Amino acid sequence: MVVFTDGQPDKSAYRRFRIRADAGGNDLIAMREALTRRFQKAEENEAGFLPLPDLLVMDGGPAQLQVALEVLESFSLDFIPTIGLAELSETIYIPGEETPIQLPRNSAPQHLIERLRDEAHRFAISYHRNIHNRNALYSVLDSIPGVGDKRKRALFDAFLTIEAIKAASQEELAAVPLIDSRTAESVYQYFHKESPVDSESPVEETK
């Protein structure tokens, strides 16, 4: 979820939702869950989810717009203006209107909508890349004794990638919360262990 305030990205208000339902690749199910959780938190006055938006823009056409309208109605928030933005074409769907509208090319509203769409896509891509990096990192760290879930999470939060952990010194590893000196040494040695020399392998020399 991205937020624009006065026409500019308000990154402090961005939020990510790890979908709990078995969406099976169905973006409508995922969208319904994300919207429901977002407005549930607003209803509970949770910090970071207020104030309510002046305009809700859905990334999609009539189907995505309908999901948003149903969620808003369930929270008695159907007074919030909501539109659907069709991918790439910047075609806007408005509730109750059969024919979508097309913003004038090179107009200020069109440029704002384009920026909003591009920022939403960038944020989503970075999130999925982050998840991929975390899963890859967790898989590697599973092989290191003494590194459980909490320590894996701490290392990921500190370094983000396997390459960054490999490049870290023992002191840098030990500076991470929950990572004591013994664990730091284990992690460092795991990534810097030398391959043993096969004693039966021939050795070539030049003179």
UniProtKB/TrEMBL annotation:
<protein>
    <submittedName>
        <fullName>UvrABC system protein C</fullName>
    </submittedName>
</protein>
<dbReference type="InterPro" id="IPR050066">
    <property type="entry name" value="UvrABC_protein_C"/>
</dbReference>
<dbReference type="InterPro" id="IPR038476">
    <property type="entry name" value="UvrC_RNase_H_dom_sf"/>
</dbReference>
<dbReference type="GO" id="GO:0006974">
    <property type="term" value="P:DNA damage response"/>
</dbReference>
<dbReference type="Pfam" id="PF08459">
    <property type="entry name" value="UvrC_RNaseH_dom"/>
</dbReference>
<dbReference type="Pfam" id="PF14520">
    <property type="entry name" value="HHH_5"/>
</dbReference>
<dbReference type="GO" id="GO:0009380">
    <property type="term" value="C:excinuclease repair complex"/>
</dbReference>
<dbReference type="InterPro" id="IPR001162">
    <property type="entry name" value="UvrC_RNase_H_dom"/>
</dbReference>
<dbReference type="GO" id="GO:0009381">
    <property type="term" value="F:excinuclease ABC activity"/>
</dbReference>
<dbReference type="InterPro" id="IPR010994">
    <property type="entry name" value="RuvA_2-like"/>
</dbReference>
<feature type="domain" description="UvrC family homology region profile">
    <location>
        <begin position="1"/>
        <end position="72"/>
    </location>
</feature>
